[in-house]
Design brief:
Helix content is about 85%, strand content about 0%. It is built from 6 helices and no strands. The longest helix is centred in the first third of the chain and has 35 residues.
């Protein structure tokens, strides 16, 4: 029975990592569609989200079934329940990538962002990709140092998000209200993307150490 349970835990971990890889591909392509006004890539991101959602639902069902059949306790219980919550965060990260892709598609053939902000959003895309790579690593290794690196990457996204607000509210902004709304929403999507990664990192810390979990994602 214990061997079966260990296999279940391994399968759950592998599925979390697989979904994380799909999220990485989605946010990378979403940023590309945004920077280059590429509608074809945006459509791929939107279509691929179905797979992320399906895999997440299957993983959630697996976690519930394992809890019911194996009756885990202590760290094993934290592992299974943590995976259930982490899967939800990954699914929402996929949704945020879709929001970015849809914004790019909406403004096609024009870009959804002013030309002078292309480098800024390229930086946001870079940190979003980095934070997913770190998320994959922390799920695979449970290294607490990596979990804390995720918070550092999230700080970078927050910093850029605040700077974009300053730019949009500046008297020098001359792109109108519509562009201001686009930029603000897109920046918010990336900022929330980082929040969900932090949520996963803190759940890993909770699983490993038993320390109380602090949810940083605002709904």
């Amino acid at each position: 029975m214990r061997n079966s349970f260990e296999e279940d835990l391994k399968e759950i971990s592998n599925e979390l990592q697989h979904i994380t890889n799909l999220v990485l591909k989605s946010v990378t392509q979403a940023t590309e569609s945004l920077l280059f006004a590429d509608r074809e890539i945006a459509e791929k991101v939107i279509e691929s989200d179905v797979l992320i959602n399906d895999l997440t639902s299957a993983l959630e069902e697996k976690c519930i079934l394992v809890t019911a059949l194996q009756n885990p306790v202590a760290s094993d219980l934290r592992t299974v329940l943590g995976a259930l919550k982490m899967a939800t965060s990954l699914e929402r990260m996929g949704d945020l990538a879709v929001h970015i892709a849809k914004a790019a598609r909406l403004r096609y053939p024009s870009k959804a962002i002013p030309e002078e902000l292309v480098d800024t959003f390229r930086s946001m895309g870079h940190y979003a990709e980095k934070i997913v790579e770190q998320t994959h690593k922390v799920l695979a290794t449970h290294e607490l140092s990596v979990a804390r690196e995720i918070e550092n990457s999230d700080d970078k996204l927050d910093e850029i998000h605040r700077e974009l607000f300053r730019i949009v509210l500046s008297v020098d902004w001359n792109h109108g209200v519509e562009a201001a709304v686009d930029v603000t929403l897109l920046s918010r999507y990336y900022e929330r993307f980082g929040d969900h990664a932090v949520s996963i990192a803190r759940r890993v810390i909770h699983v490993v150490t038993g320390e109380p979990y602090l949810d940083t994602v605002m709904h």
